[in-house]
Structure formats: C-alpha cells, structure tokens
Give the backbone structure.
Amino acid sequence: MNRIALVGAGALSLAAFVGCQQMGMDHKDHATTMNADAAGQKVAVATIKPAQAAATQPSWGTPAGTVTFTQDGDKVKIHADLTGLKPGKHGIHIHEKGDMAAPDLMSTGGHYNPDKHVHGGPTTSPVHAGDFGNITADDSGKATLDLTVDDISVGGAKNDVVGKALIIHAKEDDLSSQPSGNAGARIGGGVIEMQK
C-alpha cells in the first residue's frame, strides 16, 4: 500500500514539474511574440496563384508559393519561395491594386509607384517602390528570392504594401524599359495580406 502511495506521489510530482516547465515555455513564446511586436516587426504575405488566363497559356506554367514581407526597423525583408515557373528569369513587382478579378491580372493596375519614379531594378535608385527585379527559376521551376528594401513598409505610413498585389511576369524584366521593364504577361499573383 505504501509503495502505491509513493508511486502515486511521484507521478503527481512529475506531472506538476512538466506542467511548470510547459508554462515556462508558453510564457517564453508569448514574451518572444510581444518583443517582436514591440520591435515593430510586422509581417505580411502574398499567396501566389496562377493567373486564370494561364489555363489557355500552358507555356506560362502554374506559379504558386508565397512572398513574405517582414518589417525590420525602417527596412523590409522580402522572401519569395515559388514553384511551377518556366525555367529562367521572371519579373517580380508590386502592383498598385489588390484586385485579382481579371483573368490576365490587368485589374491589379500598374507598378506600385507612389513616389513617381522611373522603372528600374532593386540595385538602382530611385525606382518604383514595387520594382524587385527578377526571380530566377531552376530547371524544376523552383525559385527563391531574398531582398531587403527601404522604400516600402508593412502597415506603416511610408508606401504601405498591404492590400497591394504581388505579380510574377512571364518574361525577364530588362530593368530599364519604361514603364514596366518589358516583362510580359502577368502569369501569377496574390494580394499582400497582414499576418501579425
């Protein structure tokens, strides 16, 4: 009888210890989230889907994936992770409207250009706030892009991108032709939506 009581007491002690440890972990996770919010790190994501017109244009591929925007002080870190692209370079830009209704995505308007600059690439200045240059797909159609810019914001006062469209183009952006780099059809896109 004493052994059963001893085993039962031990089990209760272990459960209490594990519970306290779990509470500590939850508190730590909550504190980390609060610190990120206090630091002004807002996050927005565009979920990329093929343009509806892509069904009649098989050469366009079927772009899919996400583009994440993270506010980091006065800069925004952009990370794109895409699949379904034709191998090679594709223009990638923010467009002025989050209206994805048109099958060819022309309802998203022109490049996001609140400061009225000329078109260019991410290494030239000044350019459209939405000019990210090109994303390069490998032979399997996968593509990633990491870029840090300082002319947009995520939910901020300076050139806020939330509610705009992120568009992938059929061709390479030549980074100089006006007004949009001669990047061809809009083959995929998604609305940039606030996450936290």
User: Anything to note?
Assistant: The beta strands are 43-50, 64-72, 75-83, 88-95, 131-137, 143-149, 165-169, 186-194. The two ends are 55 Å apart (CA to CA). The chain has two domains: 1-38, 43-194. The domain at 43-194 is CATH 2.60.40.200 (Immunoglobulin-like).
